[in-house]
């Protein structure tokens, strides 16, 4: 039980006894005592003055004196300018620790009965996963685990963008340049293989656009020249061929559809390998090539019902100007679909099957407008559940040299990044020279665990709403606010517990008094369920990451200052072992929410 939950009814009881009035719940708002004052929990006296009809100082003194005299859990109190600071006793912290140490699923909140669907990853099948996808995937996974810890039934989902002009670009470039090559014949991972042809398409497009521009007169006006370049790109032969291929695909052209299935199959094999290495899976995967059909049907029904309008060129739009936005394209003039069409269909399919209470889209902040529009259009179509849509918007990942660009091939490839993290973890671990008693297989598993832990923690510890600059060297450090620091802390605790077990020393709650430093550890442990609730409400796994760091840091300071195994008092020694075992367990639970494994030794 946290101090605020414990003390609130006691304060209410004190007020009732002292002033013969039942106080309103909102008048009593306990808060942690500020570090510059002595105490654990603070009560603000000012809202209570209309009941006591006394000064803030007198009111706080009377309530503090009553609590101190009547409850053994209140050790002492002091009053500073109408703020009642209460120091809780050993009895209170012993009760807290016993609950922490003996609760089986400590930190897990009770079932809410709600279903939360979380969409993340959402890759295109024209390129491999890159660093930007990594942040999306890691945030989506950890949000899913966080929702589960909050007691919700969670459905992890992925929508694969497997159709559209971008897919046709890779297909067309392969037809023109591959000479029948395949991932198997080249030894290139499937998603990388197809991604290379997406880059190749854009190389061809640039060359053809340059030829068209050279035939005309350049404009001195920068904006006019930019418009001329854009028009030239539209008229490039390879661009027109890609658009024609998309129309053929939507019309079911057998050759185009067969090629599309083959190339997407190569990509899926590649994606699955990356997901497996990241330790990520999905409960259900949707494909845009399926869901756009329902979306298209819904748009046409909306057109018939007057929700949407058709322009003179045959394109279908939703007029959102009355809502302070603009007009949104839903079907092109040639009848082909856009992303919004697919999202409308996907959302319908999902609700029809799962009847979710909340639908969380983990998508970068560049798509804020898209999801604002999606929610609005679904509402206009009469879907009440549209209000359950939540866009978990996050800042993009940038490199020291700026943004990544897939079409130019200037991205940090996910597979290359994972391997780099493994190699860096291996190099750093071997430099420490503490792995001589490990077999090669155990070492390899450790390097992978440390590399992934470093990457995941570095990305997740940043508030999702913030942009982040990726620096792999910082992430792998064994000191500071990093994954390896927390992993090392856990390994250190497990080493202590192994030694104690070998010496026949049990870890148990004995009721021995705690040192102040131990109470600080218990305070952090005691706040774990509250932190999970807070992080869930904020949809921010970063709060859990930084909580784990604070717990690990506090343990290391305690371990530096006090002996555990060499403590002569048996009761104290056994309880210290129980305390550090609880620290290890909470670290495992907290880091598991982030998808990070902790080693038994390193």
The first-to-last residue Cα distance is: 34 Å
**How many structural domains?**
3
State the share of residues found in helices, binned by percent. 55-70%
Mean pLDDT: 94
Question: Main beta sheet, described?
Answer: 5 strands, parallel
Detail the poorly predicted runs: 404-409
Question: Proportion of β residues?
Answer: 5-15%
CATH architecture of the largest domain: 3-Layer(aba) Sandwich
Q: Compute the CA-based radius of gyration.
A: 30 Å
The helix count comes to 22
What's the quaternary structure here?
single chain
**What is the total tally of β strands?**
14
Which CATH class of the largest domain? Alpha Beta
> What name goes with the CATH superfamily of the largest domain?
HUPs
Which class do the helix and strand fractions yield? alpha/beta
Topology-level CATH name of the largest domain: Rossmann fold
In which order are the strands of the major sheet placed? Answer: 7-6-5-11-12
Which term fits the overall shape? globular
């Amino acid at each position: 039980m946290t101090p605020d939950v414990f003390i609130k009814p006691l304060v209410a009881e004190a007020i009732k006894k002292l002033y013969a009035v039942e106080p309103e719940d909102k008048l009593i708002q306990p808060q942690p005592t500020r570090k510059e004052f002595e105490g654990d929990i603070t009560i603000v006296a000012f809202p209570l003055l209309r009941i006591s009809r006394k000064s803030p100082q007198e009111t706080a003194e009377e309530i503090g004196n009553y609590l101190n005299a009547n409850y053994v859990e209140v050790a002492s109190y002091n009053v500073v300018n109408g703020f009642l600071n209460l120091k809780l006793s050993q009895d209170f912290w012993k009760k807290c620790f016993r609950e922490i140490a003996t609760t089986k699923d400590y930190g897990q909140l009770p079932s809410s009965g709600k279903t939360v669907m979380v969409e993340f990853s959402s890759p295109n099948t024209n390129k491999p996963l890159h660093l930007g996808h990594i942040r999306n995937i890691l945030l989506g996974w950890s949000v899913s685990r966080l929702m589960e810890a909050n007691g919700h039934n969670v459905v992890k989902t992925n929508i694969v963008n497997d159709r559209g002009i971008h897919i046709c670009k890779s297909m067309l470039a392969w037809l023109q340049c591959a000479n029948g090559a395949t991932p198997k014949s080249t030894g290139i991972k499937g998603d990388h293989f197809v991604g290379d042809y997406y880059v190749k398409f854009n190389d061809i497009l640039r060359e053809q656009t340059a030829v068209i521009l050279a035939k005309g007169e350049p404009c001195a006006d920068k904006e006019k020249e930019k418009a001329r370049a854009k028009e030239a790109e539209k008229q490039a032969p390879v661009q027109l061929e890609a658009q024609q291929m998309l129309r053929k695909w939507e019309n079911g052209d057998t050759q185009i559809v067969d090629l599309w299935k083959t190339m997407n199959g190569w990509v899926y094999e590649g994606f699955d390998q990356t997901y497996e290495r990241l330790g990520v899976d999905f409960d259900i995967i949707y494909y845009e090539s399926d869901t756009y059909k329902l979306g298209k049907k819904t748009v046409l029904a909306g057109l018939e019902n007057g929700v949407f309008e058709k322009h003179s060129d045959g394109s279908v739009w939703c007029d959102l100007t009355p809502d302070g936005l603009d007009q949104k394209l839903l079907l092109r003039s040639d009848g082909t679909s856009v992303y919004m069409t697919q999202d409308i269909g996907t959302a319908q399919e999902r609700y029809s099957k799962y009847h979710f209470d909340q639908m969380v889209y983990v998508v970068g902040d560049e798509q804020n407008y898209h999801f604002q529009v999606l929610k609005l259009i679904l509402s206009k179509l009469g879907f009440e559940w549209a209000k359950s849509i939540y866009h978990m918007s996050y800042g993009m990942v940038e490199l020291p040299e700026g943004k990544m660009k897939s079409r130019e091939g200037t991205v940090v490839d996910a597979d290359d990044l994972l391997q780099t993290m493994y190699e860096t973890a291996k190099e750093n671990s071997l430099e420490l020279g503490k792995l001589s008693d490990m077999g090669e297989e155990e070492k390899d598993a450790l390097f992978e665990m440390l590399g992934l832990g470093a990457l995941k923690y570095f990305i997740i510890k940043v508030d999702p709403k913030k942009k982040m600059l990726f620096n792999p060297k910082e992430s792998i450090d064994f000191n500071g606010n990093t994954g390896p620091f927390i992993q090392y802390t856990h390994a250190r605790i497990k080493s202590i517990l192994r030694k104690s077990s070998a010496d026949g020393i049990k870890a148990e709650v004995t009721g021995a008094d705690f040192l102040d430093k131990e109470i600080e550890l218990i305070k952090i442990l005691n706040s774990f369920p509250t932190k999970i609730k807070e992080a869930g409400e904020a949809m921010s796994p970063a709060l859990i990451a930084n909580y784990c760091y604070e717990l690990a840091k506090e343990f290391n300071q305690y371990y530096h200052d006090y002996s555990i195994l060499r403590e002569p008092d048996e009761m104290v020694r056994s309880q210290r072992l129980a305390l550090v075992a609880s620290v290890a367990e909470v670290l495992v639970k907290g880091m598991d929410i982030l998808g990070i494994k902790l080693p038994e030794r390193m």
